[in-house]
Write a structure and sequence with these properties.
This protein folds into 2 domains: 139 residues, OB fold (Dihydrolipoamide Acetyltransferase, E2P); 137 residues, Rossmann fold. The chain is α/β, with parallel strands linked by helices. The protein starts with 9 loop residues before the first strand and ends with a helix. 40% of the residues are buried. Helix content is 27%, strand content 31%. Helix 3 crosses helix 8. The longest helix is centred in the last third of the chain and has 18 residues. This is Chemotaxis protein CheV. It comes from Pseudomonas antarctica. InterPro entries: Chemotax_regulator_CheV, CheW-like_dom_sf, CheW-lke_dom, CheY-like_superfamily, Sig_transdc_resp-reg_receiver.
């Protein structure tokens, strides 16, 4: 398999604007609701990019000033605009934006990696796409959240049996994720377990790594892949592996910031062995033990 054609899945994007009026987008599956900006309670010593806390149906919701988080000019009316309430990586937060524009539908192959020189927001962008002749940037919400409230560093589990630790040590793992933050979290967990791994920032790069290592002592037997990636997503990558004789038996764990319940059936149909919601180091460890046991039984 020297070349790979991206297999297209559909994707819905919510378009929104900040003060500049430039269109940005977020995966609609990450959005739970859109509401007018409610009264906020400012907390002392909170992060400067946190506007305050809103009360939503009796629950507290942290509200991020997205303009400040992205280094843009603040909204003209700091009390206006609306909140995009997101549900990402097991937590909810509100994104304060100027306005919500509309929902558009596209293919994952329509999302391209962000070009160099695309502006100061580039580090917070996972991809770009064309909508009605204009360029729309797709927000890396995980990186925005991590910059404000980094996930606590969890220690490596100490309750692994000797057998689990031994079989895990024989796993040769490739981690695929276009979000640098998410990639680092996964790699950190593996290092805490005393494991080394290969990494890739796209499905195409992942396939190149698999081809390069095929037939060597480092030949990959476990792939841990993000689902949302530009050009070729995790579902398409999984289908491609299942259709390629050399890679059909690889264990594929799809690792997503979305609720895994809504992705499990689609992951199964694509041929994935398992799906997990980011980010829990203990749960990732359990999934990797199962993966290592499975490939050991297959003799991979």
């Amino acid at each position: 398999m020297s070349t790979t054609k991206a297999r297209a899945d559909s994707l819905s994007l919510l378009l929104f604007t900040l003060r500049s009026g430039k269109l940005m987008a977020i995966n609609l599956l990450k959005v739970s609701e859109i509401i007018p900006c409610p009264p906020l309670t400012k907390l002392p010593e909170s992060h400067p990019h946190v506007k305050g806390i809103a009360t939503l149906r009796g629950a507290s919701l942290s509200v991020i000033d997205l303009s400040r988080a992205l280094g843009e000019m603040p909204l003209q009316d700091p009390n206006g605009g609306c909140l995009i309430v997101t549900d990402v990586s097991r937590s909810k937060q509100g994104l304060h934006v100027q306005a919500v524009s509309k929902i558009v539908h596209c293919l994952t192959t329509d999302i391209r990696p962000p070009p160099y020189g695309s502006g100061g927001n580039r580090s917070f962008i996972t991809g770009v796409t064309q909508v009605e002749g204009g360029l729309v940037q797709v927000l890396d919400i995980e990186k925005v959240i991590h910059g404000i409230a980094p996930a606590p560093v969890e220690a490596a589990p100490t309750d692994l049996t000797m057998e689990e630790a031994e079989v895990l040590g024989n796993a040769r793992i490739l981690v695929v994720d276009d979000s640098q933050v998410a990639l680092q979290q996964s790699v950190h967990t593996l290092r805490n377990l005393g494991l080394t791994c290969h990494t890739a920032r796209s499905a195409k790069e992942a396939i190149d790594v698999l081809l390069e290592l095929q037939g060597t002592a480092q030949q990959i037997n476990v792939v841990v892949s993000d689902i949302e990636m530009s050009e070729m997503d995790g579902y398409a990558l999984t289908r491609t592996l299942r259709e390629t004789p050399d890679f059909q038996e690889l264990y594929v764990l799809l690792h997503t910031s979305l609720d895994s319940a809504m992705n499990s059936e689609k992951a199964r149909l694509a041929g994935a062995d398992s799906v997990l919601t980011k980010f829990s180091s203990p749960e990732l460890t359990k999934c990797l033990v199962i993966a290592a046991q499975t490939v050991a039984q297959k003799g991979l």
